Amino acid sequence: MQYQISGHQIDVGAALSTHVEVELSGVVEKYSQRPTDAQVVFSRSGHEYVCECTVHLSTGLTAQAKAHATEIYAAFDACSEK
Q1: Residue-wise pLDDT tens digits, 1-40
Q2: What gap in Å lies between CA 59 and CA 19, rounded to an integer?
Q3: Under 8 Å CB-to-CB from 82, ≥6 apart: which residues?
């Protein structure tokens, strides 16, 4: 699976990128055997971090989720739960 992890006016470090890849692969493989790619974008909205995730599946379906939290890791974790 290909990952595109980026930040909108935020630096996304190696530790966060690794966390996203490990957690997202576990979540997606639970529901789909052949995901093709995932895009994760982090941004800020006031004092909160925003995580938007889009996963394209080989069946043609697209799964999207968006979450807000005061910490960047918590924003991703809430997004991956959705």
Answers
A1: 889 999 988 888 899 999 999 998 888 877 777 768 899 9
A2: 26
A3: 65, 66, 67
